[in-house]
């Protein structure tokens, strides 16, 4: 009898400890971390696996991407990586080391296009069927939420009705996910021009928990330019789009400020200069820059690739633009605009000043995740948390589930 009583007391104590741990997560501004699942295939030091993720830096981690087939059925885009190799299960298991972490699955992305999503959103039957698929997958793998990255309604093969149908799709997802306490979010273009055509902003913000503004890839194509400008520099043309403008537009359209998440890049956009001596913003170019060793995409360099160049080349030159909250660097004919810890902190300060909901980063696998260029790993993620004033827990290992 005594042994039984002690056992019950121990169980109650463990329950109370567990409940306390779950209900007393540190108060932090949301840091939404996208992870590109294809990063596992990058060569050498650029390969990024789930085991490389430090879950203490993020409040939310979003696994990218799932997709849909032509029948509107939710599907894995890489069955070997996601299912056979256990990608979905491994990413969700990160909650064991950080019980406060929310792990989500994203659908869509640029390469998925828009036409299939336009068809999916067109009828009530297809929307409800899709929402049921999503709900079942959330439960099956233990995801905490679902992120919709349709690029973009009404465009790239879409139809005008997409603007209204997108709201209806989000409403169908919300009806299935909310009763089971799942998060629903979206990622949207940071272009005001695109947003006016694609989104009924007040309506979509009613249906979702947060909206991530994809604050990057805003560069010109015919000359060097900053791809993630916060505000206008005095030398910028008046029609230059900035992050400040898209934030103001979302506010003006009735989206609650706390639902707006400002996205920042962990990569740069590069060009090949016509003349290495003319290396300022607006300089003439021959085209996009050469591909990086790890990411292997022309015109794109991960922050880890950029800081490798800075570390190994004494002739690398940086220039900071204070109002853009951006930096550009050049070496010979290579020119690249990007964010570093200094500019990330400046953007985090803007988030606090504007009382936005938090920050998002695309994507953690191109941060300096091995600490090759500094004293510690993930300098951009650290800068986000520092700028937002987030206190990082020293360890979650004491929490016992």
From TrEMBL:
It comes from the Eukaryota. Keywords: Disulfide bond, Glycosidase, Hydrolase, Signal. One of its GO terms (cellular component) is extracellular region. One of its GO terms (molecular function) is chitinase activity. One of its GO terms (biological process) is chitin catabolic process. InterPro entries: Chitinase_II/V-like_cat, Chitinase_insertion_sf, GH, Glyco_hydro18_cat, Glyco_hydro_18_chit_AS, Glycosyl_Hydrlase_18. PROSITE patterns: GH18_1 (PS01095), GH18_2 (PS51910). Residues 1-21 form the signal peptide. Belongs to the glycosyl hydrolase 18 family. This is GH18 domain-containing protein. It comes from Hermetia illucens.
């Amino acid at each position: 009898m005594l042994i039984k009583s002690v056992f019950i007391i121990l169980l109650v104590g463990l329950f109370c400890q567990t409940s306390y741990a779950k209900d007393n997560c540190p108060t932090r501004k949301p840091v939404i971390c996208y992870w590109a699942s294809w990063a596992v295939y990058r060569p050498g030091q650029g390969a990024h696996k789930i085991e490389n993720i430090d879950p203490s830096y993020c409040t939310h981690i979003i696994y990218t991407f799932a997709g849909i087939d032509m029948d509107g059925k939710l599907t894995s885009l890489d069955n070997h990586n996601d299912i056979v190799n256990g990608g979905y299960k491994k990413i969700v298991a990160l909650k064991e080391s950080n019980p406060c972490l929310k792990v989500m699955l994203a659908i869509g992305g640029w390469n998925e296009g828009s036409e299939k999503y336009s068809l999916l959103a067109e009828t009530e039957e297809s929307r409800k069927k899709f929402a049921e698929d999503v709900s079942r997958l959330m439960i099956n793998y233990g995801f905490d939420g679902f992120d919709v990255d349709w690029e973009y309604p009404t465009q790239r093969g879409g139809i005008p009705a997409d603007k209204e149908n997108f709201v209806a799709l989000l409403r169908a997802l919300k009806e299935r996910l909310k009763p089971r306490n799942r998060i629903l979010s979206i990622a949207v273009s940071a272009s005001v021009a695109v947003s006016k055509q694609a989104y009924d902003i007040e309506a979509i913000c009613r249906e979702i928990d947060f909206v991530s503004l994809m604050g990057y890839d805003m560069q010109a194509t015919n000359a060097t330019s900053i791809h993630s400008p916060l505000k206008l520099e005095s030398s910028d043309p008046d029609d230059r789009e900035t992050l400040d403008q898209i934030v103001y537009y979302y506010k003006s359209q009735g989206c609650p400020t706390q639902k707006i998440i400002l996205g920042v890049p962990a990569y740069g956009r590069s060009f090949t200069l016509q003349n290495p001596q003319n290396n300022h913003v607006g300089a003439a170019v021959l085209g996009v820059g050469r591909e990086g060793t790890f990411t292997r995409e022309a015109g794109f360099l991960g922050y880890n690739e950029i800081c490798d160049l800075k570390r190994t080349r004494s002739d690398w030159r940086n220039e900071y633009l204070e109002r853009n909250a951006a930096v550009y660097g050049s070496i010979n004919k290579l020119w690249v605009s990007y964010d570093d810890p200094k500019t990330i902190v400046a953007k985090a300060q803007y988030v606090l000043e504007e009382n936005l909901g938090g920050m998002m980063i695309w994507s953690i696998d191109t941060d300096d995740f091995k600490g090759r260029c500094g004293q510690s790993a993930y300098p951009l993620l650290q800068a986000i948390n520092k700028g937002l004033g987030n206190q990082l827990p020293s360890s979650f290992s004491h929490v016992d589930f």
